[in-house]
Amino acid sequence: MKRSKFITWDQLKVGALILVALAILSVAIVKLGEAANLFTKHYELVTFLPNANGLREGGSVTVAGQLAGTVKRITLLPPQGDTTRNLQVVMELDARLRAQVREDSRVKLKSLGLLGDKVLDITPGTPRFAALAPGDTVRSVPSLDYEAVMEQAAGAVNDLVQLTRDLRGITAAITRGEGTMGQLLTNRSLYDQLTTSLTEMNRLLARLERPTGTLGRMLDDPTLYDHLTSATAQLDTVLRAMRAPNGTFGRLLTDDTLYTRLVHATTAADSLFSALTSGNGFAARLLTDQQLYDQLNKSITDLNAILADLRAHPRKYTRGLVTVF
Questions:
Q1: Which of 10, 11, 184, 258 has the most CB atoms within 10 Å of its CB?
Q2: 39-50 as b/e: b if 16+ CB within 10 A
Q3: pLDDT in tens, 160-197
Q4: Torsion sign across C-alpha atoms 42, 43, 47, 51
């Protein structure tokens, strides 16, 4: 059968459809390449982490929260003294962002959400520091340990559960009428007693408010207040007069002459008593010598006996005193 040399309309539609599909595929490849930075230049940076829970090769690397590259390689280093350098992570970044990553930049392991994938986020540097060259190391900073947070949250939940149980026990005891609160809620007699007490208190307040009573007059009659004000004023006047420098009380309060004299008199009396108690004179011996005391006591007793005998027999002592010539 002889083939036709002309292109039919059906063939034209199929060719056009294929061209459109190829165009769409090309645009999609270009867009995906731009999204994955397939057509841009990259350079590598290195960082060291103590652990990388959730981080994987091919994971995202961000600069100031914006996608800037991927994790190219994660290497577990041999055991060493520095536990902050357990893992070596090689990052592949977009070369156009090289001016953003400088010597003062820091990398931190972060999560896209509370339970999302882990990414490495780099903070932009400042112009005071030089930009990092390919192969340089970016210092890492500690990241938030979500497992520790979850453990603390679990502990808080346990405490909340225990608190709920305690509250349930308290409310159950109150419902059963235990304790003061339970009695207030369940005991009718206590409510009646409180009602009676409030009624009596209202009556008492009503009696206190009567104008004929003492408290009622204190509430309504200003006479007592005026008397108290007058007495206070008079007392203030008396206190001012007592503080006057020319009065006796004023001089007692302000003049230290009497105090000085009392101090001198006390000092002199103390010296006198010291001399009486520690000296060798007659007064000191009177205070301390028991033999002298006994002799004086005996002499006074004998003298009293002689005087008594003189009063009883005066002639006995006057005989021969009078001579008649």
A1: 184
A2: eeebbebbbbbe
A3: 888 888 888 888 877 777 777 777 777 778 778 888 88
A4: positive
pTM score > 0.70 for this model?
no
Rounded Cα–Cα distance for residues 187 and 194 (Å): 11
Write the DSSP assignment of 78-140 as a string of letters.
PP-S-GGGSEEEEEEEEGGGTTT-BTT-EEEEEESSSSS-EEEEE----TTSPBPPTT-BPEE
Domain ranges of the chain: 33-144, 149-186, 256-313
Q: Which of 148, 157, 99 is nearest to 125 (CA)?
A: 99
Give Cα separations from 262 to 248, 267, 269 (angstroms). 16, 8, 10
3-state secondary structure string across 38-57: CCCCEEEEEEEECCCCCCCC
- Residue 117, pLDDT > 60, answer yes
